[in-house]
Amino acid sequence: YRYVAKFENDAWGEGFLSTDENVVLNESACVLQYAQSVFEGLKARRTKDGRIIVFRADLNAERLEDSAYRLSMPIFPKEKFLEAVKMVVKANEEVIPSYESGGSLYLRPFMIGTTPVLGVKPALEYEFRMFASPVGPYFQGGKNSVDLRVCDLDRAAPHGTGNVKSGLNYAMSLFAITEAHKLGYDENLYLDSATRTYVEETGGANIFFISYKGEFVTPKSDSILPSITRRSLLEIASKYLGLKVIERRIRIDEIDNFVECGLCGTAAVISPVHSIDDHGAKHVYFGGNYSENSITGKLKSILISIQNGEIEAPDGWIMSL
Ligand code: PLP
After folding, report:
1. Which residues, 6+ apart, have CB-to-CB distance to 223 below 8 Å?
2. Measuring from atom 10 of ligand 1, which residue has the nearest CA?
3. Which of 45, 79, 126, 163 allows an S-S link to 7, with CB 3.0 to 4.6 Å?
4. How far is the CA of 78 from the centre of ligand 1 (A)?
């Protein structure tokens, strides 16, 4: 089951559940011609005692609002978004993976401009949908750490759309990720496009480093996606592990100064980074062998325990269904 709501005559209609996975569109729908689309990604998980919980869905609702605003789309109200999450999760309860499997039910909310247009302008009508799929780990092959390469192509321009979740940011990453996979890397590490000096993020996750002093350091930039996982880790690192947390610009030529590195995101959860290849100069972190005693390992285990409902989360982080 998926949730569907339509925006017509300047208002959102009543949302409903549907078993129809197809969207029928006019060939000149704004989304097909001018990529007017925004989306989100979040997970519902089963707890050890069989309950179903969702992590920080309110922040996904807020980020979708920011993305929609940037693409001149109507705001899909937060209350409606949270109601859609509940409806879709409940309707698909049977296919939520068990706690033991480590899997989850991935929810993909998205919104598209459906009005036919020829001249470049925003649509007048929109469709919001939320579909679901059971998922396992993001990086294939059971690897427990990932290999990155510094990418020569850019992901986001200053004052562009890198800080919102729009399909267009991912369309332009397809060429680079296909090439990276062919060359044996798991992901691309993008640099700031203005100076190609600072670390930004990867195609589908934010990045963080652990310094020799045991500080949690993560890039500050207006052109990266404000990851909900990263925002949560900043709190976890300081409140649960007592680490100093630092958001600042990180130069690519200082990545050797860190001892650990990890990717974070809804899909990646925390994926420890084994290596970053910067045009042949390879930086290897922690021998790629992150034990539970590494700071990355500890952060991962706390994050997963919070997301699984095993340890108490800060107020408002967990929605029980
Ligand atoms: N950065 C990019 C480009 C992403 O696509 C994602 C995935 O959603 C993230 C970061 C991680 O964000 P979040 O933690 O909110 O899932």
Report:
1. 155, 156, 157, 158, 160, 162, 163, 192, 193, 200
2. 205
3. 126
4. 19
